[in-house]
Amino acid sequence: MPSERQVSERAVVFLIGAVQFVNILDFVMVMPLGPDFARGLGIAPSHIGTIGGAYTAAASVAGLVGGYFLDRFDRRKALAVSMLGLVLATAAGGFATGLTTLLLTRVAAGIFGGPATSLSLSIIADLVPVERRGRALGAVMGAFSVASILGVPLALAMAEWGGWRVPFFVVAGLGLLVAAGAIFYLPPVRGHLTAERRAQPVGVLELLSRGDVQLSYLMTALVMMASFVIVPNIAAYVQQNLGYPRESLKLAYFVGGLVSFATLRVAGPQVDRHGAFIVGTVGSVLAVVSTYVGFVDYPRWLPVPVLFMGFMLSMGMRNVAYNTLTSRVPENPVRARFMSLQSAIQHMAAALGAFLSVQLLTDRPDGTLGGMETVAGVSIALTLLVPPMLRVVERRVRSREQARALAVPPAQGLAVPLSPGATPHQS
Which of 22, 73, 183, 357 could be cross-linked to 78 through a Cys-Cys bond (beta carbons 3.0 to 4.6 Å apart)? Predict the structure, then answer.
């Protein structure tokens, strides 16, 4: 077991990225596989969003509960428990026999996957200083891109080879390996415990009463609802409405993931340099354009992979911007509490978006999905609200940071961050 001084910042980012890869893949692969398990289990295509919504709703509840106690533990140990629970739930998903059992296993996965996300981001925010945090979060969020580039296409290929159950078992096995790596190679993360002993603990209600926290969570809800009213239905839409071949779906996710990976690597440093508002606004504008072109007035000459590329580009820019900004809202002693509650908001908003899409979509007699134009309109309307929220939150955070810098001498800081390539220093 390594001590706190034996793991570099880059190694921590890599390990957390690996944890996030499994966690994200467990979630995102279910939606592209939706038409496959819908046929296998007799589920209507318009109800695929219910499966994704079950995971996110459970993750939201877990985040709310976790907000009361996650800051009481070493973050590494709490992450280990969350990952092992996720592994068991994912494996159980491969044994589902119908809609009910699949929903139950996805609920179990959400209960453990939600806290795993908030703990991962808390570890990065604890160990990486704010001037490099955008770059670090961009690298960790690159796990989403890798999941799209490699994970989803491989999951689709495995489903073609051995049936839709095989990806669940393989991801569970991979998750077990990654969880072991995180347990044995991540440093202990206890600085928040020391800081909390020096300060009066902040309760959940007190945290939620803060204006910057409320605005941050509202912004989070807007981003997630705008995305997940669309995301769970993309695979079914491109196959059933656009006639895109099932065997080519791997290519679409691959090229979309490549664009997302490149975007996250570039957008993170740009957020550090220019701020979250500018980068997030550009991403939001691109999201509006790609959503309208892709789901409202799709030109038949446009290749489907290009649609994926535009969608992933816009999501990557917007998500790096808002995640980097929200990581600056909490103080170190309450970071996991804040992140856990944020995870709850993220997943609840995603669940609401997914469940709303189920209500708006219909199964037409010709096998296509009806109502995608309405779903896209809702997504566009929500996306247009994101840039003003980014501006307001960024201004409040900067004002508070400036006031704190004048009031608190550097020696009284709560945490000493990792250096970029050498040894970590955790207070």
Answer: 73
